[in-house]
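Methods — Computational structure assignment.
A single polypeptide chain was analysed. Its primary sequence is given first, followed by the predicted tertiary structure written as structure tokens.
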Amino acid sequence: MLVLVADSGKIPGLFAGSEDRLRWAHATAGAIAQNVYLMGTARGVGTCLVAGIDEGAIRKGLNLSNTAIPLYVMPLGTRRNREGGFMKKRRFVDLSIAIEPGLPSDPPMMIPKIDYVGHEQGAEQMKDFFPA
């Protein structure tokens, strides 16, 4: 089971209000979910995105802080093969860390570099993708 959670204390201060921050968190979670779907398909693991969740129960069950906002749940499971049996078992990797600048990775050249930009700067960068 994968639970996508936003930590409102770590969302960049570039967003004016809490509604903008929450919208940004949902958009980011959607991109993460899309990658989970793609990797799951490649690895023979089935999933779906569940949005109708009980935030309070999840917050309590996972002992989340008050700044943590549960967004979506993605149950993961091994699919059945054509003969009705289960596909071979897969190993799951725990990805429950925040991606931050300078995060140690292996190999060192894979360390993520994250630059947070405001709407104005981001809009200027995006204009090049949409020529008039």
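Note: The mean pLDDT is 77.
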